[in-house]
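Subject: Sanity check before I submit

Could someone independently write out the structure tokens for this chain? I want to compare against mine line by line before I put it in a report. The sequence has 206 residues.
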Amino acid sequence: MARKNDSFYFDGFKQSADYACQAAHLLSEVMHHYEPDRLLERFDEMHRIEQAADEVRHGMMDELVTAFITPFDRDDIARLSSVLDDVTDRIEGALHRMYYDNVLEIRPDALDLVDMVERSCGKMAELIGELPRFKRSKTLREQVFFINIEQDADRLFVEAMRRLHTTCTDPLQVLAWHEVYVHLELCTDDCEHVADVVDNIVMENS
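---
Independent answer below. Compare away.
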């Protein structure tokens, strides 16, 4: 069997990041134009994106099993593929909770958080797009820094949780939104995890 060249892995990473962006865009669209009666339909759309992302990851792992030469350490390839997939899975998880916790109305601060998720995924995709040039890139580590440091997700999360627990009087909605907020914040954390793995790859191969 002929080995895949390096572009196979970089293309796979890019596809994974693109699927995460698609998932983030769909979640943002759902929340900005919220229709509770259509949640199951939108859930199916999200699941198709998640399955496509899984197929990319499985394809990369199947190739990695038999690969003799890879662009960098095979454990790093497996790790990066996994954390990229985590982003899409987590975004799908946020939509899950809106569906099965029966969220009927969107809280305004949730829109700020989902906007942050969408921006974080976009920055992550830009970072992954630069990865093929990781040995000579002058901007890659700056992009890592931006994703890890210059995000307001933690502040938005704390403020949203504070408002939820001080203004919402329905205990079921407090529980539902607590889960949604946690998942939205974890989506941005997952983007940071991707940046951390990329940073480690750069450091180990410099």
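---
OP: Matches mine. For the report I'm noting this point. The two ends are 31 Å apart (CA to CA).
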